[in-house]
Amino acid sequence: MPRTTKTGFGKFFDAQMAQPSFAKDCKQARAEVDAIDQIVRALDGAREQLGLTKADLARAISAKPEIVRRLFTAEDPTPTLSTVVKVAIALGYRLELVRGIHGPCARHRGAVHRRSRPWTRWRPTCRRR
């Protein structure tokens, strides 16, 4: 059953979102979380394709098994770049930063158009091509 009244926090959040600077910061934070999630999910998919368990991967990167387990099961993982690179290398991948096809959207005066967000282009790239 949908809730009809907002909580105090909901009202506060709506008021904050009405401020352009807060809304921009919130959108940026969400984009960062989404980018990290996309990378982690791609690495987990690669791990599964190779038939490796999380414990196997932990041994391969000399990490505690719970670190790898949390990386792949946390709702909003926040791994270090070092951990992401170690996992990618252990799976036979490398991370590559590719500039978006489209540049900043001139129509929005420096705003980056949704299709050109560079973080949507981060993905593991197999070295064995």
Q: Using the CA coordinates, give the radius of gyration.
A: 19 Å
Shape descriptor:
elongated
DSSP strand count = 2
Q: First CA to last CA: what distance?
A: 51 Å
Strand content: 5-15%
CATH fold naming of the domain at 20-97: 434 Repressor (Amino-terminal Domain)
Written overview of the protein:
With 129 residues, this protein is mainly alpha-helical. The protein has a domain at 20-97: 434 Repressor (Amino-terminal Domain) (Orthogonal Bundle), CATH 1.10.260. It is built from 5 helices and 2 strands. The chain has a two-stranded antiparallel sheet. The longest helix has 31 residues, at 20-50.
Secondary-structure map with pairings?
Blueprint: H1 8-17, H2 20-50, H3 54-60, H4 65-73, H5 81-90, E1 93-96, E2 123-126
Antiparallel strand pairs: 1-2
Quick tags:
129 residues; mainly alpha; 434 Repressor (Amino-terminal Domain); two-stranded antiparallel ribbon; 5 helices; 2 strands; 52% helix; 6% strand; elongated
TL;DR of this structure?
The chain is mostly helical and 129 residues long. The protein is built from 5 helices and 2 strands; from the N terminus they run H-H-H-H-H-E-E. It has a domain at 20-97: lambda repressor-like DNA-binding domains (434 Repressor (Amino-terminal Domain)).
